[in-house]
Every structure is written in C-alpha cells, then in structure tokens.
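step=encode ok
step=design start
structure_in=
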C-alpha cells in the first residue's frame, strides 16, 4: 500500500514547551508526539483534525538555518489552517486567551472567511474556511 504524500509545516521555537502549551490551549491543536532529550523538547508533533505540524527548538547552529521569528527581523512564513466553520468564534476565543490578532475576520474575494494572529514567538497563523481550489487533471 502506498501512503499519500503529506505537506507538514515545521517551525522553530526558543521555548518549544511553552509553544506546545500555547498552540494547544489557544489555537486548538493537540499533542500527538513529543520527544525529549535531557528533559527538553527536541521534536514535537501537534495535530488539528487530520492535519499535522512539527516543531522543535531554535538551535543557533541549525543545519537548515531555521529560527524562531524572535531571532529574525520579521517572520518568514505563515501557516494557514482551514477550519470548517466558526471563524469569528475561533478568533474571539483566541483573542480571549491572549492571542495577538493581526487581521480581524474578513471575507476574501475568493470566498473565504478568515483572520490571522501572531503566537508569542512571532509565527503568523491564519484560520479560515478556504480549502484550496479543486485539483484538475493538468496537475
């Protein structure tokens, strides 16, 4: 049996333990797997529905050159999370739990309702109803 290809965002945090707690408590992720070395997180997998993200510590000599936005002069990406309903409610809950809302909920020209927030280390998270356009035979 061939497994389907997956796209899994991977993020770096100076404090992965706090990031895991915040992402679960505020944005609705759940712990799937956490590997520790000497009581520190070295790799974590969080899920939201069937989707998955990886995260790990921000090492000064990271072989990929990946770092927390705290080490950059800005952010280098945004993770978009498609949710089936309740964008405004999700935003209100995130705000009430301390999320910094970057973009209030709004309707896009491509039919999505979405908002964005920043986590405590500066990663941008967008939540919306857009699920992408259907695949065509040309792809």
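sequence_out=
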């Amino acid at each position: 049996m061939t497994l389907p290809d997956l796209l899994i965002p991977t993020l770096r945090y100076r404090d992965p333990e706090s990031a895991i707690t915040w992402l679960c408590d505020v944005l609705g992720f759940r712990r799937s797997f956490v590997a520790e070395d000497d009581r520190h997180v070295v790799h974590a997998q969080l899920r939201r529905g069937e989707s998955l993200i990886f995260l790990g510590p921000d090492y000064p000599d990271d072989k990929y050159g990946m770092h927390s936005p705290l080490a950059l002069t800005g952010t280098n990406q945004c993770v978009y999370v498609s949710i089936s309903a309740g964008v405004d409610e999700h935003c209100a809950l995130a705000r009430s739990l301390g999320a910094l809302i970057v973009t209030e909920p709004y309707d896009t020209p491509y039919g999505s309702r979405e908002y964005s927030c920043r986590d405590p280390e500066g990663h941008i998270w967008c939540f919306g109803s857009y699920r992408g356009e259907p695949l065509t035979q040309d792809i």
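step=design ok
step=annotate ok -> The first strand starts at residue 10 and ends at 13.
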